[in-house]
Design a protein that fits this description.
alpha+beta; single chain
Length: 778
């Protein structure tokens, strides 16, 4: 089936006029027929032959405009505007006009030709009766010229053609989809048509409006394009942004004056538009393109990218701005409030951009530490290897603790949790972290350290830093993993992490991890978990017997560790019921679970942000709770609420020595409660240090206030005092001082991997004597 040909009327050397239905030309056109899928370059080749121009020399000086039906007027009349034909898509748009509008038989094209640097125009219509009147943003433009052409080959002359293509209201629009006002879509980025090159009046110097169309595909915006209202322009810019995977924002400078900018503040893309008095339309008056930002963004990430771009301006000057300060700045700058979670994500991204140089961070980090030390009393201890020139050194690690945390720890439980996290970065740092637990069972960040490796030396350095700089409290419970290097440091002679200075307890999850690596048996692993988690000694003994029956070697492996180190039933209340170090939970509580892809400076800034935010949040919470008359935190109040809702009826019988037997007839269970030493055979009373359900039943019978047996560590007063310390503003980046006594730091020396084992084989026997394992490796 032959491809459809479209009759095209070509005008040049004529006069474009504006009637009630838009543009038209009363001159005599030349009729040609063009196939629907014709490329613009092929059409231009034929038009150059028709006009007699030099194809090789002047191709860029010929431009085409189409008479395009863009909007519906009252009484269903078409309104015709000029459509620039700048690529294959816009040409196809014009050639589709007859198929979309049955009342239109021909396509009309107006040619403009620029010869020898002089632009001559056929557009001589007086658009305004008084061109000298006062116009808003009036521009003086250069006239253009329209010429005619002939056909050759596939272009065919027609003498008797109908050129009445919609003159002054002689046609109606029968296309139901054209009932919307024309909008701008994109022109190609390669299109350099400026406003002064478009339809202008050579006699008056007044340009004529060129409106956009809903059918313009794959184009870019350009100077001189007009819109009925600002909504049309906004939709056009939004559509361009969506297709280009960019995000743009609009600001109204003055009345009827608008500016669009790329959401990324370093990008140079801008568009300015204003309502022009000469035609009453919104016209693009300045357009700077293309985008200079590094890469496109996904539409769903555009808001986050915009927020990060805005915050980047602040971070480059003042990287320690708090979330509250950034939220306030954003309201003043942009005009609406962000959620703290959005501020956190945007600042994290901005920090990555500003402090993204891994090697540069070794110079920035001492300055940051010195700035926080001078403003907030940060305690720091450096590890490095000096070069032959003592002014320079290779960085190995840094320990730091905030004075606010040290002060707050006095009001926390006598318990410290230590753990590590591998950081996914260039030098594979290990983050060592020490935390406490506050009165509301929240993790409380206490001390940190970066180190290149986990070893006996690094653990000794970290634990010594805690004892020397953070706390000298006696009777601490230290919850850790059963790591051999860590245990070696704890058990060293003279260590202040031995009893009675400290009581080491194992994280049950870490213990199970080691156990499962040796005994690959899920049933055994479950028995060990049950034995460690139960608070009742009878149940513990039962689980241990089951383990021994299942695998005696597994029982021997567990017996190498004292039972009070890993079993809650034998803990004697040292660990406050905390059995596992949930590293993921710990970092999620402080919103730093995604610490990867930062440099050292970025990690410190993130931890500083979260610590400062947690102090503000819990201080406000505890202060408000105290004002409401509350005395205890949620762990206690929830237990009391549970006792009121408990459907089990307990029978209480007094025993000797102020003890009480508590039974649940429906469950055939019994427990012994001793209020004088705060204990119950269920184990929860002494492990958590507040009354269990059985103790509450005794208190109810004796009409005793159960709060008398709640440890003071659960009071709101303790929680309030934990977070009373405040943080002072940190100097701006330009004012960060040099770190005193610290040499200039360089990246750590990364040891080379060991060489492959030598193969001392020679001659013909090489293939026979080479080990099989070596063959597989090679």
């Amino acid at each position: 089936m032959a491809e459809m040909e479209v009759p095209v009327l070509c005008y040049w050397n004529g006069r474009i006029e504006y009637g009630s239905n838009g543009v038209y030309d009363r001159s005599t056109p030349r009729m040609i027929k063009v196939k629907r899928k014709t490329e613009l370059s092929i059409l231009l080749d034929q038009l150059y032959l028709l006009t007699g121009l030099d194809v090789n020399d002047r191709r860029s000086k010929v431009r085409i405009f189409g008479r395009f039906p863009s909007a519906v007027q009252p009484q269903s009349m078409l309104h015709f505007l000029l459509l620039p034909v700048v690529n294959d898509s816009s040409l196809e748009t014009m050639l589709e006009v007859p198929s979309k509008h049955p009342s239109i038989k021909n396509v009309e094209l107006y040619l403009e030709v620029k010869s020898d640097g002089v632009v001559v125009s056929a557009a001589r219509s007086p658009l305004l009766a008084n061109p000298g009147s006062s116009l808003k943003r009036q521009r003086m433009d250069i006239p253009v010229k329209l010429e005619k052409g002939n056909s050759n080959g596939w272009i065919e002359d027609e003498e008797d053609v109908d050129i009445g293509n919609g003159r002054d209201g002689d046609m109606t629009d029968k296309n139901p989809s054209s009932d919307a006002v024309a909008q701008v879509v994109n022109l190609t980025q390669d299109n350099n048509i400026s406003l002064k090159d478009l339809n202008q009046d050579s006699s008056s110097g007044v340009s004529k409006p060129c409106l956009s169309s809903l059918w313009l595909d794959d184009h870019d915006l350009r100077v001189g394009l007009c819109f009925k209202d600002i909504d049309g322009l906004k939709k056009a810019v939004d559509w361009c942004s969506f297709r280009g995977q960019r995000s743009c924002v609009m600001r109204e400078a003055e009345k009827d004056e608008y500016m669009f900018e790329c959401a990324r503040w370093k990008c140079k893309w801008t568009l300015e538009a204003a309502r022009m008095e000469k035609h009453g339309l919104i016209e693009i008056i300045k357009y700077t393109c293309p985008h200079t930002c590094s890469c496109a963004i996904e539409p769903q990430d555009s808001y986050m990218e915009f927020e990060a771009d805005e915050f980047e301006r602040v971070i480059r000057i003042h990287p320690t701005q708090s979330f509250t300060e950034l939220k306030k700045w954003y309201i003043e700058k942009i005009g609406y409030e962000l959620q703290t979670s959005d501020v956190r994500i945007a600042k994290n991204e901005a920090i990555k951009r500003v402090f993204g140089d891994c090697d540069q961070s070794f110079e920035d980090l001492p300055k940051l530490m010195a700035a926080i030390h001078s403003s907030n009393g940060l305690l720091v201890d450096w590890k490095y290897d000096l070069f032959p020139n003592p002014k320079f050194a290779s960085f190995r690690g840094v320990f730091w603790a905030f004075s606010q945390s040290i002060e707050g720890f006095h009001h926390c439980r006598p318990l410290i949790i230590v753990d590590t996290k591998n950081l996914n970065c260039k030098y594979q740092w290990k983050l060592m972290i020490a935390s406490a637990v506050d009165a509301a069972d929240n993790f409380f960040l206490l001390a940190f350290a970066f180190t290149t490796e986990l070893s006996t030396d690094s653990w000794r350095w970290f634990l010594s830093g805690i004892r020397e700089r953070v706390t000298q409290r006696k009777g601490l419970c230290l919850i850790s993993s059963p790591d051999p290097d860590l245990l070696a440091v704890i058990n060293e002679s003279g260590s202040q992490w031995q009893e009675p200075w400290a009581y080491n307890r194992f994280c049950l999850r870490h213990l199970l991890s080691q156990f499962s690596g040796i005994f690959r048996d899920y049933y055994l692993e479950d028995l060990v978990k049950r034995a460690g988690s139960t608070s009742q000694k009878e149940e513990f003994d039962s689980y241990m017997k089951d383990i021994e029956k299942k695998n005696s070697e597994a029982r021997k492996w567990l017996d190498q560790f004292p039972q009070n180190q890993w079993a809650l039933a034998h803990d004697n209340g040292r660990r406050y019921g905390i059995m596992e170090i949930e590293t993921t939970t710990l970092f999620e509580d402080f919103n730093v679970s995604h610490l990867d892809n930062h440099v050292l400076t970025g990690y410190v800034l993130r931890l500083f942000d979260e610590l400062r935010h947690s102090f503000d949040e819990f201080f406000c919470f505890s202060r408000g709770s105290r004002k409401c008359g509350n005395v205890y935190t949620e762990p206690v109040t929830e237990k009391l609420a549970e006792s009121r809702k408990d459907s089990v009826t307990y029978d209480v019988m007094p025993l000797d020595n102020n003890a009480f037997q508590v039974t649940a007839p429906q469950e055939n269970d019994e427990w012994t409660v001793q209020l004088s030493d705060c204990s119950c055979t269920c184990g929860e009373f002494q492990s958590c240090k507040f009354p269990c359900l059985h103790a509450l039943a005794v208190c109810k019978l004796l009409k005793i206030n159960p709060l008398e047996y709640v440890d003071d560590c659960y009071t709101l007063e303790r929680l309030y005092k934990t977070y009373t310390a405040t943080f002072s503003p940190v100097p701006e980046l330009s004012a960060w001082p040099e770190a005193s006594g610290v040499p200039r730091l360089f990246p750590p020396v990364i040891p080379l991997p060991p060489p492959p084992p030598p193969t001392n084989v020679a001659g013909k026997s090489k293939a026979k004597t080479t080990p099989r394992s070596n063959k597989k490796k090679t």
